[in-house]
Batch of 2 targets.
Target 1
Amino acid sequence: MAAEVSKQYIIIYLNNIPHAIEIKYIESIIVMQNITRIPKAQSYFKGVINLRGDVVPVMSLRLRLKMDECDYTNSTRIIILKLEEHGAPVGVIVDAVKEVISLDDSDIEKLSYDETEEKASNSLGIGKYKDELISILNVPSIIGGEKKND
Amino acid sequence: MDVGQYLEIFIDETKEHLQSLNEHLLILEKEPDNDNTINEIFRAAHSLKGMAGTMGYKLMQRLTHDMENVFSEVRNGHLKVNSNMVDVLFRGLDALETYLANIIESSNEGDDDNEDILKDLNNFLQEGGASETKEEATKNNDRAPVSYDNDKYKFKNLKFEDHEKRAILRAGEMGLSVIGLTVYIQETCMLKGARAFMINRNLEEHGEIIKLDPSAQDIEDEKYDFVYSAFVITKEKPETLISVASSVSEVKEVVADYITISDEDKATLAASAKLVKDTQGKGTKDSGSLKASGATTAQKTTAKPVVNRSVRVDIDKLDVLMNLVSELIIAKNGLVSISSENEISTDSAYHEQLEYLERITTNLHESVMKTRMVPIESVVNRFPRMIRDISKKMNKDMELYMSGEDTELDRTVIDEIGDPLMHLLRNAADHGLEDNDVREKAGKNPKGSIFLDAYQEGNNVVIEVRDDGGGINVENVRQKAIDKGNITVEQADRMSEKDIIDLLFRPSFSTAEQVSEISGRGVGLDVVKTKIETLGGEIEAKTKLGEGTNFIIRLPLTLAIIQALMVIIGDEKYALPLGSIQTVENVKVSDIRQVEGKDVINLRGHVVPIIYLSQVLDCKTSDEKQDELLVAIVKKGERLGGMVVDALIGQQEIVIKSIGKYIKSSKLISGATILGNGEVALILDVNSLV
């Protein structure tokens, strides 16, 4: 039996559906802030915030994943992500952050290819945790992905 | 101590010498009989050779040596300068630059021996019929002492310690001689410690240094007055040591002679030597290791020499400093905004202190900014050579005239501006200037001229690249744009001459009939434009058919902190760079006219188009009809534009922060800044709107 690789993920909720983000990308999690709108930007980018003296762009993960926007609540959080250690940070707005879990690679089922290409690129696969199925988000594609400007 | 710590000095100085060689060779080619130039070239080549030798770069030394031989023949009048020879010499310089590049990369000069260049150089020497060039060259280098007065031979007046005398005696017994030297280093030398180290290293190849005055430590710490003495146990002659020591650059003069010990000294020493031997049994060993510890003789502490005082600072450290200044300004803005919102604002003492703080931060920012400024010279000084090469290659007579090389720009800009300028100059040389016979037919001076002018204009630095060539044929460009499908015929008809010229900056738009090695691959001007825009600058082109083309680059003096006018548009705050704003006007709505479907106003005789920022920025606007509009007049080159804003907040010093690469906003937003209350405000690049 091959050695199993286990990675840690943070479970977030979008529209009551759990999603997982690998913990290595996560810089910090902060509460909702005042966002300064950027005109003419991609529609899912809500604007920029002041994160301890740095200007950080923030996107709505709901809009990015083609879900409907909803009002911010007390549990709304901004997750600050970094692709590389010294890369530029990006914030994503999520409905709620729940817990940290560990998943072995064998618990993750790669998506079959009958999905649409768009969805497949934003998700790395489906993780099985307890009784739930959780979509593992493809962070590099979500942040850096150059989609058709909508 | 190893050479490593001098590597940086070596690299810097080699760059300088190479640059000087480049410049003077260009002059030499034009004025083959200019003695000053030849001497200057000779000096630089000689220093280069010495330095390369000291650092152990043998290939580099060999090449410079052969080049120096040629220079020496030229200096002695045995060889005439011709452009063929200059070509070979330039090739030599290029090879040296390659060596240097290798050294910078790996501290190793590489293993290309450039045999062909050496051969060509030696061919010149043979043609000149000079068989003993080598001897002659070295003879010329020996800055042999001219006069023999005792003042110069400082070492003769120095007293020896007993153990030193013993070492001298012992050397005599072993058939070696002791030579005293006094080395005079040029007073302009910046790193006399390093120089002395190099000289001593050279000397140690020929013998053992037993005594230094001042001490080795003091010399290394530069605690001496450009003159020092050394005593060497060697089997060489004084003349040899003189030439060894003077092969290091920036040495003014070296004098040397044999040292002998008087008979009485010998007698007393012999007696005491026995004593020492009896008691310690290792007296002689001690004297051998003295060169390291000879510090005891350090005496006179002379007044510090007045030299140009400067410190080398890593650019990263300056960046850190600049960031800290930025933070300080943000913190200060925070204080200002608290004071204006709260009750404290009535306290005048508080305000005084705040203003004081403001003055300090502004001055601090300016000072830090100045330390980062570098004259543009370091970028442009390689261009004359480049133009010469192009001129040769294309067989087109042309000349580059430069002015304002001392104009200063931020270090980061300097590092980036070289390539765009080179592009523009190549463009000018290649398809800006016509061929010589065409020029002659047109009644112009057959020799083309290219001008590179740099100067400061307000908060900007302007660099113009101008040629007196044929100019851009606007009709050709128009036609080409239509052919390529960049614009439609109707569009083309409506476009002004200026708009057409601006098409040249679009990607893949080259009008050169032929792609040549020098330019015309169609990646030219748009790359230049993008680069300059990333530096926060702008470029425009002006042309007159038959008279020439002028590319004007405007660059901001600083990149990090600017003065801005804070405005409100809709319910959002924006910063407009103050540098681009001319005035702010109250304009009556009834004064707005329509020209070709665009709103314009007549501002003291100028027709100024009106730009409604709230529409451009998709801001929420109130529906109220206003009688008067607040318009900020922006100037870009010759053009004016009126930006309609809802309210003014005031002038503020702001720190520019990038909004990151992920947001693909239009070029409208040039960055963001953090306001005193922690809010983020966007900086509008108003120039892109005009």
Target 2
Amino acid sequence: MFRFVNLALGGVSNGMIYAAVALSLVMIWRSTRIVNFAAGGMLMFTTFIGWDLVQVHNVNYWAALAVATLSGLIIGGVAERVLVRPVETGPPLNPVIVTLGLLIALEALAGMIWGNSQSHSYPPAYDFRGYTAGSHHLFFAPNDLFIVITVAAIVVLLYLLFQRTALGLRMRAAAFNPEVSRLLGVRVGRLLTLGWAVSAAVGAVAGVLAAGTSTGYVQPTGPFDALLVYGFTAAVIGGLDSPAGAVVGGLSLGLLLSWADSYIDNNIEPMYALVILVAVLMVRPNGLFARAAARRV
Amino acid sequence: MADDELRLQPENPMDRASQAPRTASSTDRYGVLSRSTLLRHTLFAVVGILLLWLMVKSFSASTNQELQLIPAYICAAIGLTLLVGLSGQISLGHGAFMMVGAYTFALLWPKWQLHPNLTIIGAFAAAVVVSAVAGAIVGVAAARLRGPYLAGATLALAVGLPSMTQNEKLSSHLKGSQGLSVPSAPQPHGFDFVQWPLFIGLICCVVLLWFTANLMRSRVGRSMRAVRDDEVAASLSGLSVPGVQVLAFVVSAGWAGLGGALLALANSNASPGAFSVQLSLTLLAAVVIGGLGSLSGAVVGSVFVVMLTNYWAQDLTNALSISSGKVANNLPLLIYGVLLALAMLVAPGGIVGSVRRLIALARPAR
């Protein structure tokens, strides 16, 4: 029983990271009905920028995090304006292919700048050695606490942005009904660009947090591809459409993966994620939290 | 084509014309060949094999070595074209099916070395069957999924499957990251050790092209197109939409499995590193850049992708006098990424589609 709870504790911080990636996917899905497969590449690239500052140029952790987030804002905004805007209204597979093109291009760029052969480590913000309870070692460290608090803060900030500010109201209006919003004077195009930028910035923070959880995480492919899959799975568990669902999805995925890794067999987390994803899609093709939606035929 | 709207499946006016009922004059001109699609395709296949035989024999050893990986990519790209272009589904996980085929081949064929050149046919067949079964499993799930959901699920497959080799229990069979080694096929009289595996691969390509071309013109192919264009209309016409979609996945995964087996043969090895997510995305790039939905597009795209990855990128970096290996290694991927996005933005028909468009422009309107 203790082990079960301890494993759950170990899954919480990863779950929060998946939740943040899922949030970044859900924000874009809500506004443009596009799954941003480039998210994995974007947050990989911004994490590399942060890593370069911290490890190569000895910049302070927080400054590097800020720069990574800022570069996420820029990459996300530029990607929407330049690449996604022209295919937004086309058949649904065109944006999928465009974002995949961006994913490959970002992975290639990172490989060109930082190399594919080595895997680099990102220093965690706080101590990664777990707390102790009596004689037991908990799978929960100060750094995990930092992750949980950071993602929770992101969730609260996004909630405040969308529910309590005029800008958030306009963004919701633009996503809900672009045509009517335009008639009412909302600059829909700009808000979509802003939405992508904010989403990529959330992803950038998630990337830096994820990179600090294990050594050798920072490489152009591999771990970040898996992180994209985990984020997508979490988002789908939550219905792709609901920010609250994304958080719940991320946390439950984190716990499930932690238990499965320990109780069933280790080293094959991506396969568990695949099984969970397919199981959820089989039971509820639109996710557990989505409202029943009619498909246009 | 007048439509400037971006379409995933660029319908080609000339393709459509060739399938339309022929007028008496065209039937007379080509005789029995225009009436029997099967006969026409078979003739093309036989002539194709003869030409390829001449080509392999006449090319230098280094050229043949350069071409070595092309058959594997062509087979998998034909499978992906069948899936994306014909049935309208998407798969970002065809690298995973290639991996299934490659491991099946690498597990079976080294044990069947009594008549390697005969048993290789059986091993290829086994690779096709096993990956087709994998395709059936994925296809059943996929038939319920649409667009981005299917893309995400197959991406998860592409990320997940190579990790299976890291599992301790499977590792004793699959040899972890190192992978399984594959012996080379003993070459018969008249071929050398570079020509023979390439020729085997090219024969496989021709057989697949023959089969798939016939499939596309058959009732099955028409049902797939019907499902792609309008699911409701197709089911109202009595087609089982999930059935057709699963069938497309089965055939497509089987072809990818054969591609995987050929890749294992060409590399003399089947290891998880060869079947990364980037392989799946490169395959997608091949069919999109070549031209979605046409078999010639799959072939052109595969040749382009293999040549760019292995040779042209090196030439390009040499020409630009870039000495960094990091840049040279990643240049092909960067080009695919840019071309994938560009293809969707400006040339949805890919290379083949653009060429046909130019020809159509050059021809006076009738």
